[in-house]
TrEMBL record:
Keywords: Allosteric enzyme, Carbohydrate metabolism, Hydrolase. Its EC number is 3.5.99.6. GO terms for molecular function: glucosamine-6-phosphate deaminase activity; identical protein binding. The record marks S144, R151, K153, T154 as: Part of the allosteric site. Pfam families: Glucosamine_iso (PF01182). One of its GO terms (cellular component) is cytoplasm. The gene is nagB. It comes from the Bacteria. The active site is at D65, N134, H136, E141. GO terms for biological process: carbohydrate metabolic process; glucosamine catabolic process; N-acetylglucosamine catabolic process; N-acetylneuraminate catabolic process. This is Glucosamine-6-phosphate deaminase. Catalyzes the reversible isomerization-deamination of glucosamine 6-phosphate (GlcN6P) to form fructose 6-phosphate (Fru6P) and ammonium ion. It comes from Corynebacterium amycolatum.
Amino acid sequence: MEIIIVDSEAEVANIASDYLAYYANKGGNLGVATGSTPLATYRELIRRHRAGEVTFKDCSFFALDEYVGLPIEHEQSYYHVIHNEFSDHVDVDPARVHIPDGLADDIGAACEDYERKIIEAGGIDIQLLGIGTNGHVGFNEPSSSFSSLTRIKTLHPQTVLDNARFFDSADDVPYHVVTQGLGTISRAGHLLLLATGTAKAHAIAASIEGPLSVSMPASVLQLHPRATVVIDQAAASELKNKEYYEFTYAHKPQWQKDMWK
């Protein structure tokens, strides 16, 4: 993994936008995520789009997950979040913004259809990821198989509590979701995980430096041939090899840094 440690959320968003803009300008398929962490990145990409620096006209978007049973017009549905926070503000074709169907009569069939759409599109070129305090990516909670595909999952109680800030109360958070599986995520050509704040420090350290384990789903990044982790100093605070990661990135050849810009 490439570990990039910076001083602020704004720097995390700027570097993440460099990577995503590179693939977008090539007409790549982008895996998009929700939650609070990616929002600064989306704002930066929208700014760059309006400045004429990046286009999404030939891209397809594939969202990581969606709540089961939450109407798409609900402000916390991921359909609403992706459109409202990102896709409606750039030049991606709305027909090419794909989000798992949490309202399908047959959820199993809808999950298979979502997998098929990704494959038929040629796969995801870069998948944006956040990380939960318990190490989940997408909504692959602890015990999720590393080979799992898009499926329905029950949220961990900690995830329900973490997401309650987006709802009136924890009782309003749906317990079931549709999520890309760890196997689905791992098929993407490039994984880009972002994290900020001390609340994510333990999960980041365990995922990067701990053992490969289904108890820490994000540790699956250890198996990927191209995984980039961009974090701020707070999220990096529990890393044992923090100084080495900073040294490595500081001495990265400039041409490698520039290629994403």
